[in-house]
Amino acid sequence: MNYLSHFVFNHDVCGRPAEPYFALGCVLPDLWLRYSRVHRIRWPALRAAAPTEARDVQLRAGLLNHVEVDQRFHALPLFHDWQRRVKGAVGRDGQPPALVDFVAHAALELALDHRLLHADPALVARFYCLLETCDIDDVAARVGRLGRVRTDGLAEVIRAFFARRFLRHYRTTAGLADVIRIILRLAHIPSLPDTLIVAILHSAVRHADPAAVWHALRAE
To answer: 77: number of CA atoms within 13 Å, CB side?
Structure first.
């Protein structure tokens, strides 16, 4: 899932307390590619950590929550069905199947956030307002210690994420298409023709249903 879907599932659907360090910890795995493709969180070290200080506990829980919920979401039969439907609706236009699979996967995650924003226009403000109560330099230092990873420069990436507030652009297909292009560029993956990206996004928005995801995850 993407930023807003994690946020809504954790705090609105599951009723977790609105703890800022938890919420930002849950954001960081999706934001990490903007920071580095070289420096990676050492997940076994993070899982083995047993912090006692409240901010460390929240941050570690948010990071691990993101991974656990993503694993469950990606295994859902409905998610695989949506991927098949999206790819079946648009074809491949001569593009590599793995690339189309990747974009369809990303488009469905973005489409869930898009649907959530249309249902709750104040969601982006609520999301950022909670995260901005964190001490960003403190977060970067704590992630470095907990995940045994270099984090010099991570604070600047988080500040830019807050300043740009690019999640507001998820409201439009054009905004989602820009995000797809950015993801492909950051991952050093060749892009698709714009017409195919837009077609995939339109199909993803038709199929993605946040309520169905919440029901499936809570039914496990």
So the answer is: 4
